[in-house]
């Protein structure tokens, strides 16, 4: 027997598609959590790499549930299935099938923190970034207080102390209320997290909880244009949601909206120039037409002008090398796509 109030059910959801080489480590790390009121749910998006055979050995574990789609329904709908249909926990964590938990006590630590405060909507920890191409890694450490007002954190989000979706527990009912993953876009978690921040209190557990892999087969490298471009709408949705809750913030929110749209444009445009010039300039023109007040002013910035010129003169590979030289000077490491 468990006290549902003090030990609420926690669901670790693992969406997957053709990640059999990584999935076992993700499942093992989830089942290794010391928290007793736990379920681990894998939603398999019609994998054809032996995933179904791999998970059979876990079926006997009462904490483990496996769902398999008959056809590939796309990543966004697979995530929706987990959040809205498969998961039964009050609290939920989404773990990438190529990632894994490091701290076996992470869920317990989060629940302990959640029980100490009222109206908590997110509890998160630190993350370890693993670059498989070069074998390097680093821990992204947040310098956050143990408890924060969500609206305070909202203004700091994406400014160096961001919450990563694979390293957090969140209130599932609040996520559904805020229409989590309604848009089929890369980065839909940004909208989810931003809306949750405006809905309650945030807790932080100071531990490196999850290892997050970046590799050539990951979503960070395989970008669909329309799903990436849809991130603009996610930022607009965040703005509209915040404005509805706090109409007196309008001036400040308009400034934030502009900063977010411009920041997204720069990151995506530079990455496209490193990969496919034709797509990069398609992105530039479409962005200019759809969001003129935010994007057109960027054309007068020296960095953007230089990027356009270099993109026209050099190949994608050469542009990438040039970009990495400048990026290393500024940040001490090479630029990584959409990480």
Automatic annotation (TrEMBL):
Which positions fall inside the Glycosyltransferase 2-like domain? 11-133
Spell out where the chain crosses the membrane.
295-314
The yes or no answer to whether the keyword Transferase is present is no
- InterPro entries xref list: Glyco_trans_2-like, Nucleotide-diphossugar_trans
Q: Name one GO molecular function term.
A: hexosyltransferase activity
Q: Which SUPFAM superfamilies match?
A: Nucleotide-diphospho-sugar transferases
Looking up Gene3D superfamilies in the UniProt record yields: Spore Coat Polysaccharide Biosynthesis Protein SpsA, Chain A
Q: Does the keyword Transmembrane apply?
A: yes
Q: Which UniProt keywords apply?
A: Membrane, Transmembrane, Transmembrane helix
A Pfam match is Glycos_transf_2
- What protein am I looking at? Glycosyltransferase 2-like domain-containing protein
Q: What is the lineage of its organism?
A: Bacteria, Bacillati, Saganbacteria
